[in-house]
Write a structure and sequence with these properties.
single chain; alpha+beta; OB fold (Dihydrolipoamide Acetyltransferase, E2P); 5-stranded antiparallel beta sheet; 6 helices; binds zinc ion
């Protein structure tokens, strides 16, 4: 049986028998593994290649690559080392969710495509990273509550994503919050992946937002993200 899906290639792993195991984030099936013969000229693919995948599903439940049609290679991400590391981190964060209900991860595809596109087009990496982390967490069921304690908000609680004053924040793990960061957070979480990126803030506020969204993601996920550490060594924070 053959099937067609749209998707982006996130990981390429060699296997025995001159095959490769490709992890693809697809529009209908979420994250899937596709087996492909190595060195086949007709199917040129690389990490972050997006396009149409024609797959053959075996009786045993494996998916074999029949044909790939490239639609967007995201070449500009590979021209800058900081973009390469950040895009790899986005892939690692996405792949984290391959442990759960894989079909659910389909929701991450438009978000990832927007993030990679805007990164390549020169949008602030701190803005793109923050939106990607926050929307990914929200779409995968870890949504900050954004509820307040009734006083002026100075801190963001990592456990439930609430806004707390310094006095209420004393007994829980928090990161610092400014009014601009609070407004940006609210915008991102209340809008679709298509509109979540449409805001601006001074760079130092975007850096704060990026620290907050990262701390929230890492607090809730047991994520090893070496690409994130590599990105921090080359970004101009
Ligand atoms: Zn309070």
């Amino acid at each position: 049986m053959t099937c067609k899906v749209k998707g982006i290639l996130l990981k390429i792993k060699p296997t025995i028998h001159e095959e490769r195991a490709l992890t693809v984030l697809t529009d209908r099936l979420g994250l899937i593994t596709v087996f492909a013969k190595a060195n086949r000229k007709k199917n040129q693919y690389d990490q972050f290649y997006y396009g149409e995948w024609v797959l053959y599903e075996t009786g045993g439940g494996n998916r074999l690559l029949n044909h790939f049609t490239l639609e967007e290679p995201f070449h500009e991400l590979k021209e800058r080392v900081d973009h390469t590391f950040l895009a790899s981190y986005f892939a690692q964060l996405t792949l984290y969710f391959s442990k759960g209900d894989k079909q659910e991860t389909s929701a991450l595809l438009p978000l990832l495509l927007n993030s990679l596109y805007l990164l390549g087009k020169g949008r602030s990496p701190y803005l793109v990273k923050s939106v990607f982390e926050l929307k990914t967490m929200q779409l995968m069921g870890y949504c900050p509550t954004l509820t307040g304690c009734g006083h002026t908000a100075d801190a963001f609680a990592l456990e439930d994503g609430s806004f707390l004053c310094n006095s209420c924040a004393q007994t829980v793990r928090t990161v610092p919050l400014t009014a601009t960061v609070a407004a940006a957070l609210t915008h991102v979480l209340n809008n679709s992946p298509a509109k979540a990126f449409s805001f601006t803030a001074p760079n130092e506020e975007l850096v704060r937002l990026s620290r907050l969204s990262e701390a929230f993601a890492l607090y809730h996920l047991e994520l090893k993200a070496p690409a994130l550490e590599m990105w921090k060594t080359v970004c101009d924070d």
